[in-house]
Amino acid sequence: MENFFEKAKHKMQSLTNKPSKDDSATAQEAIQSAYNDATAEEKQKLQDFQQKLDQ
């Protein structure tokens, strides 16, 4: 079974340069779901993903 971090990572990789609002919202949910169970290293990567979404 794929963990939440991997789901968030795959979702971020699948986004285009200009994701739709739905894509961004789905990625945001995946990041939030993954954060609670993430390791320190994964949390840093999730924060990086979040910054990319915010740009």
Automatic annotation (TrEMBL):
Ranges of compositional bias, category Basic and acidic residues: 40-55
Region (Disordered): 1-27, 36-55
Record-given protein name: DUF3813 domain-containing protein
Organism listed in the record: Terribacillus aidingensis
